[in-house]
């Protein structure tokens, strides 16, 4: 991969892994991920997200979960929780989905408040409805929007209102 004396960097690798994943070549993308690590080039959230999304889209949740667990302890960046949640919903694994939600919410409510409103309504709650778990969807929706203290609920409502005006 070295041309003209330039060594590949995280952007180069992320671009390649993203392209491979768009072509559903996740095993090839994993080889590039291994090469990055071997060359002491730390993968970033873009690199991991592409591969994680592809594993989920291909229904390979065991691999997605393994990769996710590899990302979480690194503390280099915030892992893409929604990618894994979407994969679990697509495979109707609602209980696993809720476990990821609990981990995500426990990390940092302020960081995830906007994410929760935007993605969880389209991913998790829709998944509950598809699975026929209407009461769980209703309870979860209520818990997400108003189960926190007033500051978080106000932040969410304010941002949601600003986004719809």
Radius of gyration over all CA atoms, rounded: 18 Å
What is the count of helical runs? 10
Q: How many domain regions?
A: 2
Instruction: Note the overall shape.
Output: elongated
* Helix percentage: over 70%
Q: How widely separated are the two ends?
A: 48 Å
Helix/strand/pairing category: mainly alpha
Provide the β-strand percentage band. under 5%
Main β-sheet: number of strands, strand sense, barrel status?
A: none
- Compressed to H and E, one letter per element, the order equals HHHHHHHHHH
Query: How many strands in all?
Result: 0
Arithmetic mean of pLDDT: 74
| pLDDT < 50 stretches | 147-165
Family: Belongs to the PPR family. P subfamily.
Keywords: Membrane, Repeat, Transmembrane, Transmembrane helix
Pfam families: PPR, PPR_2
PPR repeats: 9-43, 44-78
């Amino acid at each position: 991969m070295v041309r003209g004396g330039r060594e590949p960097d995280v952007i180069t690798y992320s671009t390649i892994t993203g392209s491979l994943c768009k072509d559903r070549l996740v095993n090839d993308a994993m080889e590039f991920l291994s090469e990055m690590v071997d060359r002491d080039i730390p993968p970033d959230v873009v690199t991991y997200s592409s591969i994680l999304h592809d594993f989920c889209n291909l229904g390979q949740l065991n691999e997605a979960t393994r990769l996710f667990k590899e990302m979480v302890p690194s503390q280099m960046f915030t892992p893409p929780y929604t990618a894994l949640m979407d994969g679990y919903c697509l495979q109707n694994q609602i209980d696993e989905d809720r476990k990821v939600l609990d981990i995500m919410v426990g990390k940092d409510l302020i960081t995830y408040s906007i994410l929760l409103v935007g993605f969880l309504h389209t991913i998790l709650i829709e998944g509950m409805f598809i699975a026929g778990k209407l009461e769980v969807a209703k309870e979860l929706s209520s818990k997400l929007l108003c189960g926190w203290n007033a500051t978080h609920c106000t932040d969410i409502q304010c941002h949601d209102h600003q986004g719809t005006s």
